[in-house]
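Hmm, how's this folded?
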Amino acid sequence: MRRLTAGHCLKGFLKRAFELIRAKGGICIADEVQTGFGRLGSHAWGFESHDVAPDIVTMAKGIGNGFPMGAVVTTPEVVKSFVGPKHLNTFAGTPLACAVASKVLDVIDEDKTQERCQELGRYFILELAKLRDQFEFVGDVRGKGLMLGIEMVEDKESRTPLNNQDMTSIWEDMKEMGVLVGRGGLHVNTFRIKPPMCINKEDVDYALAVISRAFSNFSSRN
């Protein structure tokens, strides 16, 4: 069994990967823990934007809005394989967790959270693109909805990943000004932006101002 994420794959990659895995008798799993419940804006689930149908979908975080909750959805064929004593979960199906998740889903729908992710995400990435054009050490900005990444490099020509010391310096500067972002990527040189899905434009503008200031501060030091 091969496990794949349904996040930011190259166009056509995930579909072809699913085809190859199934041709070998494998099972395809879409990890929607971070991307699910509308965060990407255009779709409720990341895999939908890649025109694939996974055998298993894992989800958490967004379904509970802070309450410890996770869920697994499978095809009928997969669920039939869960027989005998091999499958056991101490906390499975607690009434409280299910009640919380059900209400969260109602609020996501009523507040049009997915639409907000689409609208604010488009605005966010267009503004980040201006910073990419302004600063030599911003190699790329990419993402979808409210799941965005800023790739940091030594310079645009070499595209050498920005070193850890400088990444930490910028990251700490943003944190001191009140904006928390993650770090990821193969070389840990990408700032990961995944704000709460209930944010508004004023929140985005504040984050953009802080990121811009942190980049300017770093530029002036180098």
Residues 1-8 have pLDDT under 50 and may be disordered. The domain at 2-110 is CATH 3.40.640.10 (Aspartate Aminotransferase; domain 2). The chain has six helices and eight strands.
